Each structure stands twice: as C-alpha cells, then as structure tokens.
C-alpha cells in the first residue's frame, strides 16, 4: 500500500465529486443570478466563463482544501494544489480580465467602423476580486461539507 495515500481515498470517490459539486453550485448560481437580473431563463450562463461567482476559483479551492484535509496541510499534495489554485485564481483576475477588456475594445472598434464580424468576441471572461472571493468561499464550503 502506498504510504502517501490512505486506502479509503480515491480521486473518483473523493476529489472529483468535490470539484464537481463546487462547479455545479457556481454555474447554478450564475444561472439564478442571470434569471433574477434579466427576468428570463439564461441557459447560456450555465456554460459561459466569467461572472459571479468564479467557478474556476471554487473548483481549485475545493480541491486544495480537500487535499489539505485528507493528506495534511504540510503534504506535497496540498502544497501542489495550493500553488495551482493561486495560479488559476491570479489568471482569472488578471489575464482573463485583460483579454475581456481587449475583446470589448475590439468589438467597439468593429461596430464603430461598420465591420460586422460573424459574432462579437466574448467580453466576460475574467473575474472581479469579489467574484473570486465568492467562488473561493463556495469551494471551501463544498470541501468542508464533503469532508465532514
């Protein structure tokens, strides 16, 4: 038996359901918030990136917290998951937000110049810090609920 992995812990039995539940919770919340805001069913929000809350932040946080709870906070498994989470969250706030801003400006230029591309570029790719914080909280809640 591998000393680093307890016999009762498996990726399919523990880690993927936690990640999946945090993803479903975030995407479902996005759908409900869009429904509340626009008073219509916004099925496309179930699959689109960006917006409140950050499912990226929720998934990586839930995985990192679960790894910490299972393997210990000083284990290399938790440390790798924590670093990975930090990279994904940083990317969601900075890089993907910049890409969304570029898309907004390109769409504006295209419309102003009368260029009609097939589809506008998707502008809502990144997250605000508040969207990420809510995603992190959902991830922590999913991990703790699953573990306890």
Topology diagram in text:
Layout: H1 11-38, H2 55-71, H3 76-93, H4 95-112, H5 129-147
- Strand segment tally: 0
What percentage of the residues does DSSP assign to strands (E)? under 5%
H/E element sequence: HHHHH
Please give the domain count. 1
Q: Give the end-to-end Cα distance, rounded to a whole number of Å.
A: 25 Å
Q: What is the radius of gyration?
A: 18 Å
Could you say which overall geometry the principal axes of the C-alpha atoms support? elongated
Q: How many H/I helical runs?
A: 5
What is the residue-mean pLDDT, rounded to a whole number? 81
How can the largest sheet be summarized? Answer: none
Report low-confidence residues grouped into runs of 5 or more.
none
Helix content: 55-70%
Structural class: mainly alpha
Description:
With 148 residues, this protein is mainly alpha-helical. The chain contains five helices and no strands. The chain has one domain (11-147). It has helices at residues 11-38, 55-71, 76-93, 95-112, 129-147. Helix 2 packs parallel to helix 5. The longest helix has 28 residues, at 11-38.
List its salient traits.
148 residues; mainly alpha; 0% strand; elongated
Question: How would you concisely characterize the structure shown here?
Answer:
By secondary structure, this protein is mostly helical. Helices cover 68% and strands 0% of the residues. It has one domain.
